[in-house]
Design brief:
This protein has 214 residues and is α/β, with parallel strands linked by helices. It is built from 8 helices and 8 strands; from the N terminus they run βαβαβαβαββαβαβαα. Strands 1-8-7-6-5-4-3-2 form an 8-stranded parallel β-sheet. The radius of gyration is 16 Å and the shape is globular.
């Protein structure tokens, strides 16, 4: 299992140390949540912080844009070192165009669905994307409880990917711990995002390793 720890839950007073810890861990990527206070009711970090993280990080940056009109930021994200640019289907008027702009900029294209957004929204573009992020909480805040119906959604998406011969990874974000991590792994998830459960642990590297072993 690939693990993408979310630095939304990190200690920002010691962010460089936290990134160095992730470099030494079993994490496959580093998840960065960008919130604009419009698409979601919260504001998080912006481009200066992403650029600073990229100077220290030895793992690919998995940037999740919870913003309106995310296509405006394609070139800026490329310039600050993002590997994955993750946009919400609910926020993109021209999703196909945005996906191709992300790929033309040299990044991997990922598309996010909110918990209540049906998989049919991916019907036309599934073969075009590198990763699908299924939110298992409503986006905007860390520390929320896992939404149980997400398990069947993960399973259904896995079946669609196999049936169509697509190559998209399935990423899951929200309410992840040892128990829910096992549930999503068994349902077909490829990448787990974990924030509070990792960074609030007495042994963050151990917490990451336990998810990576699922």
């Amino acid at each position: 299992m690939k693990v993408s720890p979310s630095i939304l839950a990190a200690d920002f007073l010691h962010l460089e140390e936290q990134i160095e810890m992730l470099n030494e861990s079993k994490a496959s990527m580093i998840h960065i949540d960008v919130m604009d206070g419009v698409f979601v009711p919260n504001i998080s970090i912006g481009f200066p912080v992403i650029e600073a993280v990229s100077r220290v990080a030895k793992k690919p940056l998995d940037v999740h844009l919870m913003t309106v009109d995310p296509q405006r930021y394609v070139n800026r994200l490329r310039d600050v070192g993002a590997t994955f640019m993750n946009v919400h289907v609910e926020a993109c008027t021209h999703l196909d165009r945005t996906i191709h702009e992300i790929k033309e900029a040299g990044m991997k294209a990922a598309v996010t669905l909110n918990p209540s957004t049906p998989l049919v929204m991916l019907e036309e573009i599934l073969e075009e994307i590198d990763m699908v992020l299924l939110m298992t909480v409503n986006p905007g805040f860390g520390g929320q409880s896992f939404i149980k119906y997400s398990v069947s959604k993960i399973r259904n998406l896995k079946n669609k990917i196999r049936e169509r011969g697509a190559r998209a990874l399935i990423e899951v974000d929200g309410g992840i711990n040892s128990m829910t991590g096992r549930l999503v792994a068994e349902a077909g998830c490829d990448v787990i995002v974990a924030g509070s459960w990792v960074f609030n642990s007495n042994d963050p590297k151990g917490a990451i390793e336990s998810l990576a072993s699922l």
